[in-house]
Amino acid sequence: MELSEIKSAARKAAFARRKAAFDGAGPGQAAHLSEVLAGYRGVPLSGFLPIRTEINPVSAMAEAAAHGPVGVPVIQGAGLPLEFSRWEPDMALREGPFGAKVPMVDDYFDPEILIVPLVAFDKNGGRLGYGGGFYDRTLERLRARRATLAIGFAFDAQQADALPLEETDQPLDMIVTESRILDLT
Predict the structure, then answer these.
(1) CATH code, 141
(2) Which keywords does this chain's UniProt record carry (predicted)?
Protein backbone atom coordinates (compact mmCIF):
# COMPACT_ATOMS: atom_id res chain seq x y z
CA MET A 1 0.00 0.00 0.00
CA GLU A 2 1.30 3.48 -0.88
CA LEU A 3 1.77 6.21 1.72
CA SER A 4 -1.16 8.21 0.33
CA GLU A 5 -3.46 5.20 0.82
CA ILE A 6 -2.14 4.64 4.35
CA LYS A 7 -2.73 8.32 5.18
CA SER A 8 -6.23 8.16 3.71
CA ALA A 9 -7.11 5.15 5.88
CA ALA A 10 -5.65 6.83 8.97
CA ARG A 11 -7.69 9.97 8.25
CA LYS A 12 -10.89 7.97 7.82
CA ALA A 13 -10.43 6.24 11.18
CA ALA A 14 -9.48 9.51 12.89
CA PHE A 15 -12.50 11.37 11.47
CA ALA A 16 -14.76 8.68 12.94
CA ARG A 17 -13.11 9.01 16.37
CA ARG A 18 -13.31 12.80 16.19
CA LYS A 19 -17.00 12.75 15.26
CA ALA A 20 -17.81 10.48 18.20
CA ALA A 21 -15.89 12.79 20.55
CA PHE A 22 -17.59 15.87 19.08
CA ASP A 23 -21.02 14.31 19.46
CA GLY A 24 -20.35 13.60 23.14
CA ALA A 25 -18.52 16.84 23.95
CA GLY A 26 -19.83 19.21 26.56
CA PRO A 27 -18.89 22.75 27.51
CA GLY A 28 -15.41 23.73 28.64
CA GLN A 29 -13.52 22.11 25.78
CA ALA A 30 -11.00 24.96 25.71
CA ALA A 31 -10.26 25.24 29.46
CA HIS A 32 -6.77 23.74 29.17
CA LEU A 33 -6.06 25.80 26.06
CA SER A 34 -6.96 28.96 28.01
CA GLU A 35 -4.58 27.83 30.75
CA VAL A 36 -1.72 27.42 28.27
CA LEU A 37 -2.37 30.72 26.48
CA ALA A 38 -2.47 32.60 29.81
CA GLY A 39 1.30 31.99 29.97
CA TYR A 40 1.77 33.83 26.65
CA ARG A 41 -0.34 36.96 27.20
CA GLY A 42 0.23 39.51 24.47
CA VAL A 43 2.19 37.18 22.16
CA PRO A 44 0.69 37.29 18.64
CA LEU A 45 -1.14 34.04 17.99
CA SER A 46 -3.46 32.39 15.56
CA GLY A 47 -6.32 30.09 16.40
CA PHE A 48 -8.99 28.74 14.07
CA LEU A 49 -12.73 28.98 13.68
CA PRO A 50 -13.88 25.35 13.83
CA ILE A 51 -15.50 23.56 10.93
CA ARG A 52 -17.44 20.31 10.94
CA THR A 53 -16.46 18.27 14.02
CA GLU A 54 -13.34 20.20 15.11
CA ILE A 55 -12.91 21.01 18.78
CA ASN A 56 -13.80 24.63 19.53
CA PRO A 57 -10.99 27.02 20.60
CA VAL A 58 -13.02 30.24 20.31
CA SER A 59 -13.46 30.91 24.05
CA ALA A 60 -9.68 30.67 24.60
CA MET A 61 -9.06 32.86 21.55
CA ALA A 62 -11.47 35.49 22.88
CA GLU A 63 -9.63 35.56 26.23
CA ALA A 64 -6.29 35.94 24.43
CA ALA A 65 -7.65 38.72 22.19
CA ALA A 66 -8.10 40.90 25.27
CA HIS A 67 -4.30 40.88 25.72
CA GLY A 68 -2.83 40.89 22.21
CA PRO A 69 -3.35 40.12 18.54
CA VAL A 70 -5.22 36.96 17.61
CA GLY A 71 -5.71 35.82 14.04
CA VAL A 72 -7.29 33.07 12.01
CA PRO A 73 -5.85 31.28 8.97
CA VAL A 74 -6.78 32.42 5.48
CA ILE A 75 -6.03 30.02 2.63
CA GLN A 76 -4.29 31.83 -0.24
CA GLY A 77 -4.41 28.98 -2.75
CA ALA A 78 -3.34 25.39 -3.34
CA GLY A 79 0.33 24.79 -2.56
CA LEU A 80 0.73 28.11 -0.71
CA PRO A 81 1.33 28.76 3.00
CA LEU A 82 -1.46 30.26 5.07
CA GLU A 83 -1.72 33.92 5.94
CA PHE A 84 -3.24 35.03 9.24
CA SER A 85 -5.79 37.80 9.50
CA ARG A 86 -6.60 39.61 12.76
CA TRP A 87 -9.72 38.31 14.46
CA GLU A 88 -11.78 39.68 17.31
CA PRO A 89 -14.86 38.22 18.98
CA ASP A 90 -18.13 39.19 17.27
CA MET A 91 -16.42 40.76 14.24
CA ALA A 92 -17.92 40.55 10.75
CA LEU A 93 -16.92 37.32 8.99
CA ARG A 94 -17.22 35.94 5.49
CA GLU A 95 -17.17 32.44 4.08
CA GLY A 96 -13.65 31.24 3.29
CA PRO A 97 -12.40 28.11 1.53
CA PHE A 98 -13.61 24.75 2.87
CA GLY A 99 -16.38 26.42 4.88
CA ALA A 100 -14.06 28.15 7.35
CA LYS A 101 -15.09 31.66 8.34
CA VAL A 102 -12.53 34.44 7.90
CA PRO A 103 -12.60 38.18 8.72
CA MET A 104 -14.62 40.31 6.32
CA VAL A 105 -11.59 42.62 5.94
CA ASP A 106 -8.14 41.05 6.01
CA ASP A 107 -5.46 42.52 8.28
CA TYR A 108 -2.53 40.12 7.99
CA PHE A 109 0.26 39.56 10.53
CA ASP A 110 2.70 36.77 11.46
CA PRO A 111 1.79 34.95 14.67
CA GLU A 112 4.40 33.46 16.99
CA ILE A 113 1.99 30.82 18.32
CA LEU A 114 -0.27 28.70 16.13
CA ILE A 115 -3.20 26.76 17.54
CA VAL A 116 -3.38 24.03 14.94
CA PRO A 117 -6.47 22.00 14.03
CA LEU A 118 -5.89 18.39 13.14
CA VAL A 119 -7.42 15.07 12.27
CA ALA A 120 -5.08 12.92 14.40
CA PHE A 121 -1.98 13.27 16.57
CA ASP A 122 0.51 10.96 18.24
CA LYS A 123 2.36 11.21 21.55
CA ASN A 124 5.52 12.46 19.79
CA GLY A 125 3.91 15.54 18.27
CA GLY A 126 3.12 14.01 14.91
CA ARG A 127 0.07 15.52 13.24
CA LEU A 128 -2.20 14.27 10.51
CA GLY A 129 -4.11 17.12 8.87
CA TYR A 130 -6.58 17.24 6.03
CA GLY A 131 -3.94 16.53 3.39
CA GLY A 132 -3.41 19.94 1.81
CA GLY A 133 -0.10 20.62 3.56
CA PHE A 134 -1.14 24.18 4.47
CA TYR A 135 0.07 24.07 8.07
CA ASP A 136 3.26 22.19 7.18
CA ARG A 137 4.27 24.84 4.61
CA THR A 138 3.24 27.64 6.97
CA LEU A 139 5.12 26.30 9.98
CA GLU A 140 8.21 25.69 7.87
CA ARG A 141 8.08 29.30 6.63
CA LEU A 142 7.44 30.83 10.07
CA ARG A 143 10.04 28.66 11.83
CA ALA A 144 12.66 29.72 9.27
CA ARG A 145 12.11 33.32 10.44
CA ARG A 146 11.89 32.81 14.23
CA ALA A 147 10.82 30.39 16.94
CA THR A 148 7.17 29.50 16.40
CA LEU A 149 5.17 27.44 18.89
CA ALA A 150 2.74 24.96 17.29
CA ILE A 151 -0.02 23.84 19.64
CA GLY A 152 -2.22 21.04 18.36
CA PHE A 153 -5.76 21.33 19.73
CA ALA A 154 -7.90 18.22 19.56
CA PHE A 155 -10.10 15.78 21.40
CA ASP A 156 -8.36 12.99 23.36
CA ALA A 157 -10.01 10.51 20.98
CA GLN A 158 -7.96 11.87 18.09
CA GLN A 159 -4.74 10.38 19.48
CA ALA A 160 -3.30 7.54 17.41
CA ASP A 161 -0.59 5.08 18.38
CA ALA A 162 1.39 5.85 15.23
CA LEU A 163 0.86 8.07 12.20
CA PRO A 164 2.10 7.78 8.63
CA LEU A 165 4.35 10.83 8.51
CA GLU A 166 6.56 12.31 5.83
CA GLU A 167 9.79 14.30 6.03
CA THR A 168 7.87 17.52 5.24
CA ASP A 169 5.39 17.07 8.14
CA GLN A 170 6.05 19.74 10.76
CA PRO A 171 5.92 18.52 14.39
CA LEU A 172 3.75 19.99 17.10
CA ASP A 173 5.44 21.44 20.19
CA MET A 174 2.45 20.88 22.42
CA ILE A 175 -0.89 19.11 22.26
CA VAL A 176 -3.87 20.33 24.23
CA THR A 177 -7.05 18.29 24.55
CA GLU A 178 -10.24 18.70 26.53
CA SER A 179 -8.59 16.86 29.43
CA ARG A 180 -4.81 17.36 29.28
CA ILE A 181 -1.74 19.26 28.13
CA LEU A 182 1.15 17.39 26.51
CA ASP A 183 4.26 19.60 26.40
CA LEU A 184 6.71 18.09 23.89
CA THR A 185 9.38 20.81 24.01
Answers:
(1) 3.40.50.10420
(2) ATP-binding, Ligase, Magnesium, Metal-binding, Nucleotide-binding
